[in-house]
Amino acid sequence: MKRLIALFLTGVAGVAHADWDVNMPVGVTEISKEVYDLHMLIFWVCVVIAVVVFGAMIYALINHRKSVGAVPAKDMVHSTRAEIVWTIIPVVILVAMAVPAAETLVKMEDTRNPDVTIKATAYQWKWHYEYLDQEIDFYSNLDADSNAARQLGSGIDPESVPHYLLNVDNPVVVPVGAKIRVLLTSNDVLHAWWIPEFAVKKDAIPGFINEIWFRAEEVGTFRGVCAELCGQDHGFMPIVVEVRPAEEFATWVAANQAEGDEQQRLADAVN
Amino acid sequence: MTSATHTADHHDEHHDHGPAKGLSRWLFTTNHKDIGTLYLLFSLTMFFVGGAMALVIRAELGMPGLQFVHPDFYNQMVTMHALIMIFGAVMPAFVGLANWMVPLMVGACDMALPRMNNWSFWILPVAFGLLLSTFFLGGAPAGGWTMYPPLVLQTGDAFPLLIFSVHLMGISSIMGAINIIVTIMNMRAPGMTLLKMPLFVWTWLITAYLLIAVMPVLAGAVTMLLTDQFFGTSFFRAAGGGDPVMFQHIFWFFGHPEVYIMILPAFGIVSEIIPTFSRKPLFGYDSMVYATASIAFLSFIVWAHHMFTVGMPLTGQLFFMFSTMLIAVPTGVKVFNWTATMWKGAMTFETPMLFALAFLFLFTIGGFSGLMLAIVPADFQYHDSYFVVAHFHYVLVPGAIFAIIAGAYYWLPKWTGHMYNETLGKWHFWLTTIFVNLTFFPMHFVGLAGMQRRVPDYPVVFADFNFIATVGAFGFGLSQLLFIVVVVQCIRGGKKATAEVWDNPHGLEWTVPSPAPYHTFDEPPEVGDLAEIGPLKGT
Questions:
Q1: Residues B273, B407 contacting (CB under 8 angstroms)
Q2: Which of A98, A234, A228, A6 is closest to B458 using CA atoms?
Q3: Closest to B284 (Cβ–Cβ): which among A78, A188, A224?
Q4: Are the Cβ atoms of B360 and A164 closer than 8 angstroms?
Q5: CB B344 to CB A70 under 8 A?
Q6: What is the pLDDT of residue B538?
Q7: Do A87 and B329 touch (CB under 8 A)?
Q8: Residue A168 gets which letter from DSSP?
Q9: pLDDT in the model for residue A5
Q10: pLDDT at position B1, please?
Q11: Is CB count within 10 Å lower at the N or C end of chain B?
């Protein structure tokens, strides 16, 4: 009970300096911008319908109540014309929505001709990335600071941890402006790879390979999460993608390949 | 003459049959009113059990970081909350209302198969006893109510109990559905043709067919899980050549009709209440029936919209997007018809009407977010985010549950013979409506901003909306205690209710006294002049 009260007080204090993030990110790919536009289009369509329908309901609630002396129109039980109108209009709206949605979907599903292909394998509870052409591979875990803070009763204030729960030890690094294809699979249960800023989300399924692609148009660090329930640490296997200029990406590849070769030599020596 | 006297004697004897005394009345009852009461009380109990679990979830989500529970226990809460609310609270509440009201509405003396009726209820406490006992067997199921493999196969000793209790729930539902169909088809009073039946009876008839069609599919899916776990099959194990996604197809072939199983009877209840308090017949009765049937048909061909991210072929995604969008048409027809029913009526706002109106507004909001979810490219962003959580709670809480509460207030005087306390009822309504929005509306925002479902902890940017939702949830939970007060008061006493209860309501249930006698319609009622009792009253 005490903890509940403490929770309430801290929460009230928190709301006072609020960070009101209320909408889908526009994102940094052509596709994510199209998805955002579709989202806003269907949202405004819903708002307009809501204004009309709720408006009619509210008008009736105000004017057609017994207390203002309304007399029920008991013979108003059917109107074929109204039924046809309110069937046809929604159909037209739906067709108008379906066309742009289908167009964007066709683009999203076109994974041909990638510049870089990365195979992401999900584990309980981390990701493994393998750059198929560059021969780089590594695991990506929740970063140590978040991991310490997220333990039950850790006493560490999540506010004090940079990018709490959205930071990893080894991020994915990709070149800006290139078409990146990600092949998704899993080693155990279902997981899902989601980066809101790229508008990609797809399940990682054991025994199957799913494909997604994105082409980031801006340099930066983009964060996502596992979106499919995968057990107790489902909330603790984030995804971080660093989009870098092409030259920096090349440097990163060279450095990691060298490191990989070094490890290979050590392994061979042991054998 | 002799035979007539004999019949009369027999008849009198029959009337003397009151309920048995004590516990055996409830254990052995075959009376549709007793069984309806049992279902409703069971549902109310489960509503509070599932609600308590929701409050554990919301307490943990009140602020970032883990404060109260271990993530695995959190997942147990998420899983059990859903199973209990769906199979223990919403579905039994509808069956309870059907038990009470369908015979009264069609002029039948009881349900067609009274002993099976008793059985279908008493399976339920056993099923939920088994399910809840898993808390003491090393932990309840924690893989989500959708039971997706391979994760569900990691469940410990709770696994076989989960499967067995789902089987029992399915058997109970199927028996309940058969009973309702047989009652409606065979026991309607002479003159009550199908297209004269009250909308609640119609929606339940269609719901019962949905139940019979899909509960065996669920049973098959969970049995395959069971054999995968214990008998070495590989239906869903990739390592043995199986396909984990196949489970999702089978599950949602059950799961989507299940969604309508939980909303069609709600449509029926609202279609009874709005005309009564608008003092006007239901607008577009025939189109309401056809819209219900269309929704039921469409529910079988939209299932994969729950799984757009599994990686289906483009054509499959397009098909399921278009078919899902189509559902907006018959659903829209229903909303427009309810609005037209209110239009030029003479409305009053007793508690049942208030809940029905809140249903109308808030279910429609859930419908809008549903339409948004149908747009596949956008769904890739919404899927498995809190936006989805907001969506299905809008259609289930201020949707299904508000309709159930509205129905309870509407028929309570018929059941108990007393009027409930209108002031407390209105308090219950306003608190519930304010808190339900406080709880679920902010979830749209955090979901769009990137918060995924089924996590006990989250990045700090989501803290404020989650805190608001937690305050809302505790407010909502506490407000429901008022409902208990109202119901208990109403059972114990209060102003005597008349047979009609409301101002000139439609339907045969208002022709019997309040409380409805233990046995009603031993002789089928006269339904000669349907205009006087049917949905076309006043025309």
A1: yes
A2: A234
A3: A78
A4: no
A5: yes
A6: 39
A7: yes
A8: B
A9: 62
A10: 35
A11: N
**Quick check: B71 and B456 in contact, CB under 8 A?**
yes
> Which positions of B are catalytic?
81, 110, 145, 172-173, 256, 258, 260, 271, 305-306, 331, 334, 453
For the stretch A128-168, pLDDT in tens is 999 999 999 999 999 999 999 999 989 999 999 999 999 99
Please give the residue of chain B at the shortest CA–CA distance from A152.
B66
How distant is the alpha carbon of residue B403 from its chain centre? 9
Helix (H) or strand (E) holding A131: strand A126-131
Q: How far is B499 from chain A, CA to nearest CA, in Å?
A: 22
Cβ–Cβ < 8 Å for B276, B199 = no
Q: Do residues A117 and A181 lie in contact, with contact meaning Cβ atoms separated by under 8 Å?
A: yes
CA B157 to each of CA B70, B456, B458: distance values in angstroms, whole numbers, following the listed order? 19, 23, 30
The DSSP code sequence of B131-175 is: HHHGGGTT----STTTT-TTGGGG--THHHHHHHHHHHHHHHHHH
- Going A258 to A262 to A263 to A265, the CA torsion angle's sign is positive
A158: which 2 tokens? 């999540």
Q: Residue B77's closest chain A neighbor by CA?
A: A232
Give me the helices (H) in A109-245, please.
Answer: 144-149
- pTM attached to this predicted model: 0.93
Higher per-residue confidence, A225 vs A7: A225
Report how many Cβ contacts below 8 Å link chain A to chain B.
Answer: 325
DSSP helix/strand/coil, B218: helix
Predicted confidence (pLDDT) per residue in A62-86, tens digit: 999 999 988 998 888 888 999 999 9
Q: Quickly count: other Cβ atoms within 10 Å of residue A30's Cβ.
A: 14
Q: Give the chain B residue whose CA is nearest to the CA of A52.
A: B336
Cβ contact, residue pair A53, B357, below 8 Å: no
Band (A89; pLDDT cuts 50, 70, 90): very high
Quote the tokens at residue B48. 């509070």
Identify the CA nearest to A118 among candidates A137, A102, A105, A99: A137
The alpha carbon dihedral of A203, A209, A211, A216 has a sign of positive
Regions of chain B short of the pLDDT cut 70: 1-17, 528-539
**pLDDT by residue (tens digit) across A177-194?**
999 999 999 999 999 999
pLDDT at residue A271 is higher than 80: no
- Contact: B378, A49; criterion CB under 8 Å: no
Q: What is the pLDDT of residue B529?
A: 54
pLDDT for the residue numbered A166:
96
CA end-to-end span of chain B: 41
* Tokens of residue B487, six digits: 């119901």
Angle at B313 between CA B311 and CA B317, to 5 degrees: 85
Question: How many whole angstroms separate alpha carbon A243 and alpha carbon A246?
Answer: 9
Q: Tell me the average pLDDT across A245-269.
A: 85
Amino acid at B67: Q
Q: What is the pLDDT of residue A22?
A: 84
Which residues have C-beta within 8 Å of that of residue B120, sequence separation ≥ 6? B95, B171, B172, B173, B175, B176, B179
Mutation site for B-interface testing, chosen from A24, A99, A150 by largest number of B Cβ within 10 Å:
A24
Question: What was the pLDDT predicted at A18?
Answer: 46
Q: What is the pLDDT of residue A6?
A: 60
Beta bridge partners of residue A221, listed in sequence order: A242
**Of B153, B172, B277, B279, whose CA–CA distance to B226 is shortest?**
B153
Verify whether the Cβ–Cβ distance B148 to A23 is below 8 Å.
no
- B224: which residues sit within 8 A by CB, 6+ positions away? B233, B235, B236, B247, B250
Do residues B227 and B237 make contact, with C-beta atoms less than 8 angstroms apart?
no
